[in-house]
Design brief:
two-stranded antiparallel sheet; 6 strands; globular
Length: 88
C-alpha cells in the first residue's frame, strides 16, 4: 500500500493507512495527527476506562459524517476482547 506510514507503539511497528486523510476538516487534523494525539494521552485515557464497559464509535469518513457504533466485535473479527496492559 503506497499511502501508509509506520508508527512505533510499545516496541511494535503499527501500520497507519491513509495517514494524510483529513478527519477533522475545520481544524485541519489528519488521521496521523489523531494517532499522534492518542499516543500522547494514551496512558491516562486507558487508566480512565480500565474495568469499564466500552464501545467503539467509528467515523468512516470524517467527524462531519454520521458515525457508526460497534458495541462488540464483528462476527468475522478474529478479536472479541481487548486486553489492556499497564507497564510495571
Amino acid at each position: 500500500m503506497a499511502d501508509e506510514t509506520l508508527v512505533q507503539i510499545g516496541g511494535e511497528s503499527i501500520r497507519i493507512s491513509s495517514p494524510g486523510k483529513l478527519l477533522f476538516p475545520k481544524q485541519g487534523w489528519t488521521k496521523l495527527d489523531v494517532v499522534n494525539h492518542f499516543l500522547v494521552v494514551a496512558e491516562g485515557a486507558i487508566r480512565g476506562i480500565a474495568g469499564r464497559p466500552t464501545m467503539l464509535k467509528r467515523y468512516m469518513e470524517s467527524v462531519e459524517v454520521d458515525p457508526i457504533y460497534h458495541k462488540r466485535a464483528d462476527k468475522n473479527s478474529p478479536f472479541d476482547t481487548v486486553e489492556i496492559r499497564f507497564p510495571s
